Amino acid sequence: MLLPTSTLFNSDGFLLEKGGEFELLEVAYETYGRLNEAGDNGVLVCHGYINNQHAAGDENGWFSGLIGPNKAVDTNRFFVVTSNMLGSAYGSTGPASTNPATGKPYGLDFPDITVGDMVNAQIRLLDHLGVKHLAAVIGNSFGGHLTFHWGTAHPDRTNALIIVVSALKGRGDQASLEKLKDRFRPCPGWNGGQYYGREKEGGVFDEMKNICIETLIQYGCENTIREEVGDKPDIIAQHLAELATPWAEQFDANSLIVLRKAGIQFDARPKVANIKAPFLYVLSRSDNLFPPSIAPDTMKLLKGAGVNARYFELDSDNGHRAPSVDWQGWAEELEAFMNRRTS
After folding, report:
1. Average pLDDT over residues 138-162
2. Which of 6, 92, 97, 141 is catalytic?
3. Pairing state of beta strands 134-140 and 161-164?
4. Catalytic residue among 54, 145, 149, 320, which?
5. Does 247 have pLDDT greater than 70?
6. Which of 245, 255, 253 is nearest to 198 (CA)?
7. Which entry of 64, 287, 316, 326 is annotated as an active-site residue?
8. What is the pLDDT of residues 178-197, one digit of tens each?
9. Domain boundary assignment for the chain
10. I need a labelling partner for 271 at 20 to 30 A (CA). Which of 58, 125, 207, 281 fits?
């Protein structure tokens, strides 16, 4: 689904790294601020696994505390672009898109895509928008993988890299991918991934809701709710269900699978020496997905490869969601880094 705040960019003849081609490439995106005449004040922001491109512009933007006029990423100065990842469910080409060979949604016949393909789709969009050079690329969670790829595969196209609650290598393995598929196979309406239009009656919606609740808990959302309502399990469970319902109605189960597959294949470690841009690495003290314990090895690898890297740990109890929920805790660090490294 295309968000009401987003615009759709169309392009044709998009070749994939592992073979195949999209006759029509669609990329949903949003922009904030204005592009300068030189076309070199762009900031690309990359979203997470189950998130979307609405990062700013109003209070619902997931990085709205950090992006906007006179904020850490100042839209009086920068032209900020956020795009929905290739394979995701918020408007860009994905499993719910029509397969021209069948006239039906791709489903699990969606081609095998890579993080490199996702970045190449962003490059198509940026070229269309007239962005000739990026002042910075910022990636949150899965978006950090895209940011690492920008740094290793396109080192001359950006002045700075900011990777937030992410890692040089994707999480999980083939077993975790099969485990995810196994969650949907028992749904009576799964139909090998061709469930479109029958999500609720076929059980796919309910399973998506369950996955979202589990993910919100893993991301630390339960702690945030507990701070607001107290230690009341029933009320906390109700709040989690209310948060999960709209997402389960909007997101595509096949996108979960396609993006997970791309994520587990991602590994930027062999190419870190390609990175030329200064690098800010931000992790959350309480994050269970990308814990601070991975920072020493990551920084050792980066600095050993000659990368100008800086590490910042966000002191928060809100886990993986801390950079957006507790944005005040690292806004000053981000602003200082942007001011030093993006001119």
Report:
1. 98
2. 141
3. parallel
4. 320
5. yes
6. 253
7. 287
8. 999 999 999 999 999 999 99
9. 7-173+266-341, 174-260
10. 125
| Cα dist from 180 to 25, 87, 172, 281, whole Å | 27, 16, 11, 29
Name which of 243, 334, 236 is nearest 282 in CA terms.
334
Mean of pLDDT values over 85-96: 97
| Contact predicate 146/122, CB 8 Å | yes
Give me the helices (H) in 192-327, please: 204-219, 221-229, 233-250, 253-264, 295-304, 322-325
Question: What is the percent of the chain where pLDDT is above 70?
Answer: 99
Q: What is the predicted pLDDT for the residue at 227?
A: 80
Instruction: Report yes or no: 191 and 166 within 8 Å, Cβ to Cβ.
Output: no
pTM for the model stands at 0.94
User: CATH class for domain 7-173+266-341?
Assistant: alpha beta
Question: Is 287 among the catalytic positions?
Answer: yes
239 belongs to the catalytic site: no
The answer to whether 229 and 236 have CB atoms below 8 angstroms apart is yes
CATH number of 174-260: 1.10.1740.110
Q: Quickly count: other Cβ atoms within 10 Å of residue 306's Cβ.
A: 11
